[in-house]
Amino acid sequence: MWPLLGIAVVVAGFALRLNGLNYQYWEASFDSAARLDSKKVTASGSVDQFNLSPKKRDPNIGLRFTGVIQLPADGAYTFYTSSDDGPVLYLGPQKVADNDGIHGTTERKGTITLKAGAHPILVNYFNGGGEAVLKVSYEGPGLKKQEI
After folding, report:
1. Which residues of 98-135 are buried (b: 16+ CB within 10 A; e: fewer)?
2. I want to staple 87 with a disulfide (CB 3.0 to 4.6 A). Which of 69, 114, 125, 139 is the partner?
3. Plot region of 57 (φ>0 → left; ψ -120 to 50 → alpha; else → beta)
4. At 5, is the secondary structure helix, strand, or coil?
5. What are 9-58's pLDDT values in tens digits?
6. Distance CA 82, CA 92 (A)
7. What is d(CA 139, CA 148) in angstroms, rounded to the nearest whole number?
8. Among 107, 110, 55, 58, which residue's Cα sits nearest to residue 84?
9. Within 13 Å, how many C-alpha atoms sit on residue 140's CB side?
């Protein structure tokens, strides 16, 4: 279902691996990431990291990124989203970091305890106005905070 792009980040002998990242892109007005499915998808494809390269305009866009992360060790992982409007990050069915809503650039975080291995990751994002900003970061056992 998701391509294996094999992007790895290595710190202190451990690695978090992002195994592919697909996106869906909308050109529409949103006030919440929860409303992405209410509009018709404009484009889709794949990228190698969480970024806004698929967008063709500002504002009034939406993006959904889906992929798989490979965690190197059991333990508590903290995931961060930094954006001007609202990303929501899920690992499997669990909402981990909720930054939904129209606001200035804000960072939100959430911590989840996970087993080593593959985990589905999903980020819903929209830009309702102003400059589009999206950063997704993490830290975990033996891993310093860094962007995915």
Report:
1. bbbebeeeeebbbebebeeeebebbbbbbbbeeebbbb
2. 125
3. beta
4. coil
5. 333 345 577 877 999 999 999 999 999 999 999 999 999 999 999 999 98
6. 20
7. 10
8. 107
9. 27
pLDDT in tens, 63-115: 999 999 999 999 999 999 999 898 999 999 999 999 999 999 999 999 999 99
Model pTM above 0.85: yes
HSE-CB for 40 with a 13 A CA cutoff = 1
How many Cα atoms sit within 13 Å of 43 on the Cβ side? 10
R_g (Cα) of the chain, nearest Å = 15
Structure tokens at 62: 């939406």
CA distance 92 to 75: 16
Q: How confident is the model at residue 129 (pLDDT cuts 50, 70, 90)?
A: confident
Q: Coil, helix or strand for 138?
A: strand
Q: Which residues on neighbouring strands pair with residue 83, listed in sequence order?
A: 106, 134
